[in-house]
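hiii, so i know i said id send this last week but things got crazy w the move. better late than never?? heres the sequnce for the chain we talked about at the cafe, plus the structure i predicted for it. fair warning i was half asleep when i ran it
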Amino acid sequence: MGKIQIQDLTFAYSGSGPIFENFSWQVERGDAWAVIGPSGCGKTTLLYLVAGLYLPTAGRIHIEGMKITGPRPGSGLVLQDHGLLPWSTVAQNARLGLTIRHFYGSDGRHAPADEILTVAEADRRIRYWLEKLGIHHLQQMFPSQLSRGQRQRTAIARTLAMQPDLLMMDEPFSALDAPTRDELQELIIALHQTTALTTLIVTHDIEVAVCMGKQILILQEGINHVPRIVANEKAGTPEYRYQPHFRKKCTELRHMLGDLK
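okay and structure toks below
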């Protein structure tokens, strides 16, 4: 699930020139994509457009054949600033999406129309992801008491607990130390492989892009008309980051980004 089709997309912020103009791009179900480019090129903007938080100036975005006119219950988004409620504990923040779904019910807007979520199932999901992400022991703490990495893991737990078919992440590893970053990257890769989850990760980090994206979309400063795509089939294979081919692909991507300046 999670097929994305973008057709003739144009988008501009009020008072500014377009970031995208007649831009078309497609993500197949189960694909793993990384989006990379310099600051201000539209990486996060593209993510918000796919998430339904921004609407195109012109053109269309469809996910699973449905036109996106607002947030979609099957899409999960991990924000760069975490988006945690400061007055809620780790457990409460991780449960927030499921709490909203329980309040509205399976209305097809706030939750998938075919989802029946019991309290016991919600408890199980939250417990599973807090343990999986190594923060179960922090569940009664508040965001102000956490490191940036712990806050990021809480945000990831909140999103994964909703079992999205499309996972979008904005700079998900920027706040993490190297061992934790590598561990979470492996977790997301394994999740993608075992569930056929469509993943779309925005990053400025070349190594993260090459590690995570079987396809890499390169955006440029100014107007993006035509998608520049780098195939990266070995992403997600065991020990890829330590292989010569990984370094070669990083160098290729670095040169391509340099040519856009």
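btw The radius of gyration is 18 Å. thought thatd interest u
miss u guys!!
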